[in-house]
Each structure stands twice: as structure tokens, then as C-alpha cells.
Amino acid sequence: MAKKFTAKPDELSKVDYKPPKKGWMDTPAEFKEHTFCWGAKGKNLDAVNFPNARDWSPAEEDWKLPENWQEIFLEGIRERLGKYRSFKLFMDICVRCGACADKCHFFIGGGDPKNMPVLRAELLRSIYRKYFTASGKMLGKIAGARELTLDVLKEIWYYYYQCTECRRCSVFCPYGIDQAEITMVGRELTNLLGLNTDWIAGPVANCYIKGNHIGLEPHTITNSVEFFLDDIETITGIRIKPTFNRKGAEILFVTPSGDLFADPGTYTAMGYLMLFHELGLDYTWSTYASEGGNFGLFTSNEMAKRLNTKIYAEAKRLGVKWIIGGECGHMWRVINQYMDTWNGPADFLEEPVSPITGTKFENAKSTKMVHIAEFTADLIKNGKLKLDPSRNDRLKVTWHDSCNTARGMGILDEPRYVLRNVCNHFYEMPEDTIREKTFCCGSGAGLNASENMDLRMRGGFPRANAVKYVRDNYGVNMLANICAIDRVALKTLMEYWVPDVMVTGLHELVGNALVMTGEKKRTQDLRLEPLPEKEAKE
Amino acid sequence: MRILFSFFAVIALVLSAYAGVKIANLQFLFGVVIPYIAIAIFILGFIYRVLKWGSSPVPFRIPTTCGQQKSLPWIKQNRIENPSSISGVIIRMALEVLLFRSLFRNLKTQLKEGKLVYGEAKWLWLAGLAFHWSFLIIFVRHFRLFLQNTPSFIKMIEGLDSFLQLGVPVLYMTDVVLLGSVTYLFLRRVFIPQVNYISLAADYFPLFLILGIGTSGVLMRYFYKVHIVSVKELVIGLASLHPVIPQGIGVLFYIHLFLISTLLVYFPLSKLMHMGGVFLSPTRNMVNNSRMVRHINPWNYPVHVHTYEEYENNFRGKMKKAGIPVEKE
Ligand code: HEM
Ligand code: SF4
Ligand code: SF4
Q1: Which of A160, A199, B36, B63 has the fewest beta carbons under 10 Å from its own?
Q2: How do the domains of chain B map onto residue ranges?
Q3: Is B75 in contact with A13 (Cβ distance < 8 A)?
């Protein structure tokens, strides 16, 4: 089944936007190769006590559903209509003006009309109308209502796992209808039937039992960090000694586990270690709360909460005063929108104050959790860091706003401020592709698997296209961001669409530019590549 | 199909009013009974729908942030698009409701020789705004029919609306704008392929209905005059709960009134409820301050978690070997 994805970029970039002649209700979903992820393994669903745990495959005819699956699905809708005003309202008030239609990266890159946010919503809305509204019950198809058949279920599944919950549609909708909210509900419903993907269910199970998505056990975490420390020593001559699970530290540091695992996230992790060491920060890592990200968010509200609980629980156990969070997109959506509501109040912590600058982080006074870009921006503003941005002179950098931090939080200028201070060449992508209008990497919300490459490369096409623009016009060769998924996903995306552009986290560039006390003369950057000439000559 | 269905539905409404009044002489039904029922359904239905939305809680703070958050004091916050205070939200909502702020952002995405370009696309915004505002102004102008003496602010609106001073009776600009913009909204549904693809009968029907209301109104005012004094008598009768059916009102008026009654009944059953819904939308009407002030979820419930103790029990040996402190030796 797993044929290699071989489509060439120039094939993929020919997109046909013309909708088919037949109406969408009469066009069942076709499960195209390389557009969907494998089904969740029974053992991964079992690990978190999810219903209908069994091995299954979306490509097969038989989805091994429970006898009364319709009932479960409809009851699930009813329950959520009562729990979420957003869901109920968004089912009711769309006028189908189409303003959101060409705002979704999956539609732009693929042309499938059911990837227009409005139609993605209609897939579920048609069911809502049929079973929950008078007009739908009476008028049926004329009122846009339809029966919940197996084909319809499969269609909903197919397209709700082709949405990265990025909220770009919501920015343009006159009522703020947010397909991400609807997708979240849709995915909860599929999870009532055991229809998760393994790319999501696997990390969820890992995170639940081992503390992080990758499934790193405690000794593997310290081992990985040891490797980074070796590299840092090679580069700077300084041996750093971070601590793990240390009680009484002032600050707990939580970051996505991806940064401990794969390039280029690992360089970002090195950046954190160097920065904290240079500051002499009294902080600790945790192996129990070793995940900032939260694949539960792509599963169900309850699962997300179950995973998120560990952060406050660990902060309490260790007796820290407050928490710093590393660079991650959906992690910060969770921290900004959900964490305190789910697992607060964090009254055992103190309002965060930077021990270096004395700055009170007023905006985090309830969650007690500060974004590292906020933390670092404050350090730089107060002149607490010695920086040599010319060490990044090899790089012409552009900035990718991650969907979650842009549209679910609004952290836009803090990282840009840091960036401008640690590198000399920074170019923005076109205005309609950044900040609140930023484009998704195409692989968020648990879609960064390897079996759905067609979908990912199409979904990332608008982002890649904007990067290409700055590469062609300004010679940009580095795409910086504050998201662990981006660091992995954009790397693949760039290799495909804009091969000469590399990907970095913000704190990798900070680590490069940071002049550390007692360091030897640096000749290498964090990737162990030679620093630019000028620096080497000095 | 979807278009024809909606079109003929409106034609059928016109014909039934025509037949009802012209042939069956049901003036009282079409002039009094149906309007009363329609108004009652509209008011009760509208309230019911809003209360029903209101009965579902907003468990999380989920504003769509469209600008810089409130953060360090020297970083300039976008107080409107990413509000951290109620006043910011009020301005944000006012911009949405009065000026369709989000629709104003609209872009047209085009793929040209492998390059994506994002062009201006303000027509929908302009036509939408023109339609809604002219609808509102026409609605307000109608109050002259409800009141013996026309209040001065309505006279003022009428004056402004007809300042071109064209024709007899003078032309109201909003009449032209309303019909023009609704026609545009209809045509874009037909001719823009994606919009056509997503459109339901329920999208064409209100457009035809409003076109029908507008057209019958325009015909009455400029072409086939109805007896305006009698119309006023009827409307005041309705408003004062002493309904009367004066003689000699043209059938066109009854058609107009019946279409309006239909709109009123249809309103709470349909997407037209966006009028109420826009105010309740959590992605727009919430403050982005959930890191500053804890938001309460009324149905927050305890969940199963994997505790630290369980974790340590799983990994104690490995932790000790790696030099990680443990709770129990
Ligand atoms: C607070 C009041 C209202 C607001 C903020 C509002 C806003 C909007 C917006 C932004 C759109 C999408 C753009 C467009 O197609 O024009 C729209 C569509 C529409 N509105 Fe309203 N509206 C309101 C009240 C009403 C009322 C009272 C009606 C009455 C009959 C109405 C009828 C329509 C119709 C028919 C459409 C769909 C147009 C189409 O098919 O393209 N709206 N509204
Ligand atoms: S922009 Fe909003 S109202 Fe318009 S079609 Fe999309 S979801 Fe519906
Ligand atoms: S949330 Fe993002 S991926 Fe999902 S429909 Fe909207 S624009 Fe597309």
C-alpha cells in the first residue's frame, strides 16, 4: 500500500480550482493516496482508555465500527451543542458568502472544493440540519440536510483530518466562524468511534505514559541533552550542567519534546541551554512534564486536558515559582486559551518576575507561564545580553508566524524584536502571508506524518510560495519560527518547494549570537558549521 | 435547480397574495391576520434562538487574535484586533457590525504561473454593506407609515436619501442601492464558481424574497401608485391594535406586505439569524486575557491523569541510573 510519494513540485503546483459539475452532496469522498494518515492502533487507543480500540485502516472498506455508531455520533453532536456556544452558533449562522473559501491553504494548494472552510463545515452542518433543526427535518436536501450514512461519516473523517485547525478562515469570516473549532468538535466525534489516526494516537499514548510525544524515557532525555552539552562545549569551551526534576528551583522549563529529538529543533534546544546558563538562571527541566506540545488537542478536549495536567502538577511537586515555556505553536494555543481554565488556578505559583531584569510579566499573572520569546525580548530590551548578530551574517532570515501563536495568542512582535537583535539580515514575507494572515506549514494539528505527503506539500504550498518570493527577491536562505512542528514540517516543505532555504528556531539564532562569559573564540555555529569569515578573522 | 426552486417559491408567494386578495377578497387575512402572526413568530422566534444560543456556555476564551497581544509594556499592542479590555472588544464588535471589518480584509487568491498572488477583493464587502445599510435606512423610513406625524429625524433621513431630487416622486437612492446590491449578491452566487458550488436553495430564497419586497415597493412608489392615505390607515390600525381594512388599496400593497410577512417568519428559521448571532460570536466578542484572568468553564470536570507517582514507579530504576532525583528510593 505504501507507495512512495513521487509527484514533482511542478506537477503539484498546477491546481485546478474549478468545482465539479455534480453537487457536493452527490460526490462521495475519494480516499486519494498520500492524502490521509494511517488509522490508530488499538494499543494506542487502549493506553488512554479510548472507545472502540482496535487496529483499523481508513483505506479499507470496513472501519470496524460499533453497531450503534450513528447513535453515538448524533448523541455526541447533541452533547457538544449544549457544551459549546461556538459550535452551536457556527452551525447556525453561516451565510455561505464564500469569503473564507480561498483562505484555506489546503484549498489553495489542492483545489478540492471540500477543503474550502465553508464546505468543510457544511459536511457536518448538513448532519446537524437533518437531525437537529426543524427545516432540515422537513425539507431535507432543499434545506441542505442529509442522512448520516457510512459514506458521509467517511467523508467527514477524510476532510476533518485535512484541516490543521489554523484559524485562517476565521480571520476573514464576517462572524468569526472558526473552522478550527468545528474541526475540533468533528475530531472529538470521530474519536467516540475510535477513528483517530496513529500519528496522533501514538504521541498521545506516549505522552500520557512517558511524559512526551516522542516517547523519550527519563534516561534518554538526559542522554540527548548530554549530546547537546558536548556540542556546546566543542563550540564555546563551556560545559553546562542543567538539572532535571530538581526541587526548589525557581523556574520550571517546559518545551516540546521534538526539540530534543530531531534537527533543527535540537539546535534550538542548545540555544535554550546556553541562554539559561549564561544568565545563571535557577531553573530545572522535568522528565515527567517533558512535553509542552499537546496532541490531545487534536483528539478531544478531555484528552488535551489529561495531558496538560502534568505541567502544573510537576510545578507544584517541584515547588517552583513559575514556568517558562519553550518555542511551540499549538502548545501556546493551549497555554493561552485552555490551561488555566482546565487545570488552574495555579495559586501555588507566584506571579512571574524575571530574576534578571525584575520585569513583572503582567500578561501572565494568572497562568504563571511566560513564553520564552517574551522572556528573551525583555532581557534584550534591558541590555542584559551581550550579542554579536554578525555571527548569523551567513543567514538571510525571514520570519514565519505559526498559526497558533499568531491567531490563538498574538505573539507577533516579541520574536521579531529578538530576531532583529540577533541577526543583521531580516526580510518579511509579503504582507498577506504573515502575522494574522500567516499561512500554515500544512502539517499542523497532527498531520505531519509521512504517508500523507501529497496533502502536506499542497497544504504548505502557500507558505512555501511566500518563502520563495523572499528567496528570489532578497536571497533569503533561512526560515525562522517559534514552533517545534514547524521546525520539522517546514524543513520537509522547503526541501520540496524551495530547496536552498533552511529552517531554524529563534533560540538557535540567539545561541549563535550570544556572547557567553568565558567562552573561547567561536569558529563554529550551533550546527558545527564555520562562522562567517569576518568573525573568524578577528 | 436550487435557484429555480427558490425563484418559484417566491413567485408562488406573490401569486397567492394576488389570488387571495384579487379573487378571494381575503384582505383581512393578508392585511391583518398574517402580518400579526408573522410579527409574533419573528419576535418569539428571534428571542428563542438567541436564548438557545445563550443557554450553551462558552467554556473557553477563544478570540481569534488578529494583531499583537498585550505583553511587555514597550511592545505596541493592537487593542482592537487583539483586545485585552472590554472597551477594545466593544470597538472590535462595533467595527464588525457597522462596517463588516473582517469582510473588509477579503482577498482574492490567484495562482499565476506557479506564483500565488493576493489581490484586493472589496466588492462583496461593498455590496454587502450597501445592501445592509440601505435595508436599514428603508426600514427606518417606513416608520412614517406608523405614525400620524412624521418625526423630524425620519424627515431628515428622507431628505438625505432623496437629495438628488430626481423625478416625481423623488427618487430614494437607497431603493436603487438595495436592488442593485441584492442583484449583485445574487449574480455572484450564480457566476463565481466556488460560491455557486456552496450555495443552497436557502441562500437564493432570501435574496429573491428581498428582491421581491424591494421590487414591489418600488413599483408601488414610482409606477403603480397605491392609495397611500389608506395604506397609512391600515398600518396605523395594525400598530395600534385596532386593525382596519380601508377600501381601495391596490393589490400590489398586499403582495408587498405578504412578502414581508414571509421574511419575518423565515427569519428566525434561517441563516438570517446571523443578525443576532454576530453579537454572540466567541471568536470576536471575547477579551484575549486568559493568561491574566482565569476563565471559568462551568462544566469543567476532573479527568484521569497519569500521576507522577505512577510515572516514577514505571521508571524509578532508569531515573536513578541517570542521576535524576526520585521521591522514593
Ligand atoms: C446586525 C445586523 C446584521 C449584520 C452585522 C449583518 C452582516 C452580514 C454580513 C457581513 C453578511 C455577509 C456579506 C454579504 O453577503 O452581504 C450578510 C449577509 C446577508 N445578510 Fe446580513 N447582517 C445583519 C442583518 C441582516 C438583516 C436584518 C437581514 C434581512 C433581511 C440580512 C440579510 C442578509 C442576507 C440575505 C445575506 C446574504 C447575502 C448573500 O446571499 O450573499 N442581514 N449579513
Ligand atoms: S466567511 Fe463565514 S459566513 Fe462566509 S461562508 Fe465562510 S464561514 Fe460562512
Ligand atoms: S482552520 Fe485552517 S486548515 Fe482548517 S479550514 Fe480553516 S483555514 Fe483551512
Answers
A1: B36
A2: 2-298, 304-329
A3: no
CB contact under 8 A, B294 and A345: yes
The residues in B 18-77 lying below 8 A from A, measured between CB atoms, are: 49, 52-62, 64-76
B70·A99 Cβ contact <8 A: no
**A99 close to ligand 2 (CB < 6 Angstrom):** yes
Atom of ligand 3 nearest to the CA of A165: 1
Q: Cβ of B6 under 8 Å from any chain A Cβ?
A: no
Cβ(A35)–Cβ(A454) under 8 Å? yes
The reported pTM is 0.95
| CATH number for the domain formed by residue range(s) B2-298 | 1.20.950.20
Domain residue limits, chain A? 21-196, 203-537
Pocket perturbation via mutation, ligand 2, pick of A87, A89, A91, A100 by most ligand atoms within 8 A of CB:
A100
User: What number does the ligand 2 atom closest to the CA of A99 have?
Assistant: 1
Check if A101 has its Cβ closer than 6 Å to any atom of ligand 3.
no
pLDDT digits over B108-136, tens only? 999 998 899 999 899 999 999 999 999 99
Phi, psi at residue B119, to the nearest 5°? Answer: -95, 165
**Cell numbers that stand for A148 in this block:** 448520516
- Cβ neighbours of residue A340 closer than 8 Å, sequence gap 6 or more: A346, A366, A367, B290, B291, B294, B295
**pLDDT, tens digit, 9 for 90 and up, residues B151-178:** 899 999 998 998 887 887 889 999 999 9
CA dihedral (B296, B301, B306, B310) positive or negative:
positive
Backbone angles phi, psi at A451, to 5 degrees: -85, -5
- Mean pLDDT by runs of 10 across the 538 residues of chain A is 82 93 93 95 96 96 96 98 97 97 97 97 98 92 94 97 97 97 98 97 96 94 96 97 97 95 94 98 97 96 97 97 97 97 96 97 97 98 97 97 97 98 98 97 95 96 97 98 96 96 98 97 95 60
Concatenate the DSSP letters of all residues of B243-297 into one string.
----TT--HHHHHHHHHHHHHHHHGGGSGGGHHHHHHH-TTTSS-S-TTTSPPP-
Contacts of B115 in chain A (CB under 8 A): 465, 469
